[in-house]
């Protein structure tokens, strides 16, 4: 829920704070519910403090000894406001946090970035606030981004290798021992002669492993089209990592586009996800149809092209044009996959009505982890053109 979707009472309650709860309520319960409660907690985290309060630690805030929700850390707060509020409100909150309340550890103190543990939450906070950092802090932040990206690439590379390495050939065995290819039934049959009835033990003298057939892929185009609005930051990160890994595979021509109301072609930076992420500008409006039109112009062989739209599908421009371009892409034989989330949790929050319309004209829509996307792509590429 963005601020534009709030009712009048919710707006006044958020503006006036806890003291207005009784006056604005109708006696049936609190004025706020759901996302508006999260907005209230984020606002209270910042404005519910005394000016004389000591500078906060970047990792945590003291928790009260009650049953209230856990206090937010600075990175968590930054990530939440970029999900909950519109751009102009975010800018005001960040400015007040830094200039008025001096909550500036993350973006002004290199020693803080040196001692914090690299994590995706911290990476997201850096991407949200890098425009506020001075050059020294930005250099430290880049190192943090690189550390987290390396972790993500290492994890995804294993899943990509498994997805694209070929299929088991159960009729042929190999001397190459690999736990994924262990043929348990054949191993038992081959070693039954070594069974000792007195001890009831079977001695395995020779373990058997299935070989894998090589997948010979014809050249395909994979075009990742990524919404860079603030709420999609996790998907932006995983899209950059996915593009970097896919670009290393033979037979695949990978493109990466980022968009808000404009489209930026980041394909030349796909092999360097750290540099790519440092260039991404989060926030702004959303013109999905323009991005999909740009992607359509990149298609060389329609029946060997997969366009992956990573967005919440809240079209800020012309919804009917978005449906039209997706229909045209599907009609020419291209595959269109719409992802409402591409991250480790794969928890979608999206415009279900628009998603339904895209499915009706031929797209597939879902939410996936990067590993699931890799397996989906491998399956489609193995299946060949339509």
Précis, in short:
With 386 residues, the chain is α/β, with parallel strands linked by helices. Helices cover 46% and strands 14% of the residues. It folds into 3 domains: 3-103, no CATH class; 167-213, no CATH class; 220-383, von Willebrand factor, type A domain (Rossmann fold, 3-Layer(aba) Sandwich), CATH 3.40.50.
What would your notes on this structure say?
There is one protein chain. By secondary structure, the protein is α/β, with parallel strands linked by helices. It has three domains: 3-103, no CATH class; 167-213, no CATH class; 220-383, von Willebrand factor, type A domain (Rossmann fold, 3-Layer(aba) Sandwich), CATH 3.40.50. The chain has 16 helices and ten strands. Helix 11 links the parallel strand 5 and strand 6. Mean pLDDT is 79; it is low at 52-70. This is VWA domain-containing protein. It comes from Pseudomarimonas arenosa. InterPro entries: LolB, Uncharacterised_CoxE, VWF_A, vWFA_dom_sf. Residues 219-378 form the VWFA domain.
